[in-house]
Amino acid sequence: MIKLLEIYGGIGAPRKGLINLGVDHKAIDYVEWKANRVKAYNALYDHLHKPQDVRGWNLKPDILVHGSPCQDNSRSNANRKGAEEGSRSELMLETIRIIKEMGEWRPKVVIWENVKGVLDKNVMPIFNYYMQELSELGYTNSFDVLNAMDFGIPQSRERVFCISILGGATFDFSKLEKQPLRHIDDFLEENVTDERYMVNIPSMLNRLKDLATPDEIEAAKKKHRFIETIDRYCTTITERQDRCPNAGVVKVSDKQYRYLTEREVWRLMGFDDTDFNLMLKEFPMKPGLRNATLYALAGNSIVVQVLEAIFKVILNEDYATSFTTSTNGQLQLIC
Fold first, then answer.
1. Helices (H), the chain
2. Sign of dihedral through CA atoms 184, 186, 192, 197?
3. How many CA atoms lie within 13 A of 267 on its CB side?
4. What radius of gyration do the chain's Cα atoms show?
5. What per-residue confidence (pLDDT) applies to 165?
6. 3-class SS at 5?
7. pTM here?
8. 2-181+300-334 CATH pick, 2.30.30.370, 3.30.40.10, 1.10.1740.10, 3.40.50.150
9. Each residue's pLDDT tens digit, 220-265
């Protein structure tokens, strides 16, 4: 049995990945401070967690997954601070403190996910510090940029994954099992005509690339980005769709475009309709309005299929490391 700890756990994408793989596991705890995310997690996995702060926390996991807040690492944030003191992204370093305090019970594998911006020159030093601290604790670090499109999901979503293994073994990203890209049509709802999803705000219509002339696109390059029309895949799903940039829009008819629906963005993050229907019970739709909560929950998650591929490598012992269960149920690392 794999003992899983999710820090900054969101809606539980790691848990969903293990479920999809049919892996016997126990979620020994889940840490998340935003109430709506906790409410969603509890509904998806039948738990009674309460919002809690990661600071001051301790437990004994086998695999620790954390995706600390990304706002201060994001390239779209002109005033980003990286993980410097006082920033939201600083919480990635709280994971180091937690691992230190675990002592001999420190997790065998640590998985961290964040935006590509952590590799930029003005932010990279804190990422290097994070890896150095783990190295001093006995971990070997590997990181790579993974795109959800390489794992079958028609969403161009590039994220940095850093995988740290205790005991000298190294995670081999080349052994990740890639999947053929599925077409976006497999994820879209049919005949969406509800007015709430139609793009009708002038500021958004003015940014639709399909409706702009080549000269307008060229002239506006330095001012703002244009919104793409979705063809085979969408761009990165974020907390909101009614802003620029967004994941793209769907063409309904000549000069008529719509946003992705809440159900569609959940599908494009790797969750199924059963999961989404549970969410609708927790966060009901309001007449004539899009559901901002459901968009935000999906946009802040990790694509499930990427995690599945990572877990497969870990569980297949492809990095010359074996997991065995000790008499007290804790996984042991044998190199």
1. 13-21, 35-45, 92-102, 124-136, 202-205, 214-220, 262-267, 273-282, 292-299, 304-315
2. negative
3. 17
4. 21
5. 96
6. strand
7. 0.86
8. 3.40.50.150
9. 776 667 899 999 999 999 999 999 889 999 999 988 999 999 999 9
Phi, psi of 296 (to 5 degrees): -65, -40
Token pair 């002339």 is found at: 213
Res. 85: pLDDT tops 80: no
In the DSSP assignment, the letter for residue 261 is P
Q: Where do the structural domains in the chain lie, given as residue ranges?
A: 2-181+300-334, 184-285
Closest among 318, 6, 324 to 171, alpha carbons compared = 318
Q: What is the pLDDT of residue 55?
A: 55
Residue 56 tokens, joined: 């001051």
Q: Are strands 63-66 and 2-7 parallel, antiparallel or unpaired?
A: parallel
For residue 273, give both structure tokens. 């309709």
Q: 127: closest CA among 164, 79, 172? A: 164
Catalytic residue among 70, 162, 244, 335: 70
Sign of CA dihedral 303, 83, 170, 172: positive
Q: Which of 253, 276, 280, 251 is nearest to 265 (CA)?
A: 276
Between the CA of residue 322 and those of 105, 123, 161, 318, what are the distances in Å?
17, 35, 22, 9
Q: How many whole angstroms separate alpha carbon 277 and alpha carbon 54?
A: 29
Active site residue 70: yes
Residues contacting 197, CB < 8 A, separation 6+: 258, 259, 261, 290
- Cα–Cα distances (Å) from 262 to 203, 211, 279, 291, in that order, read 22, 25, 10, 7
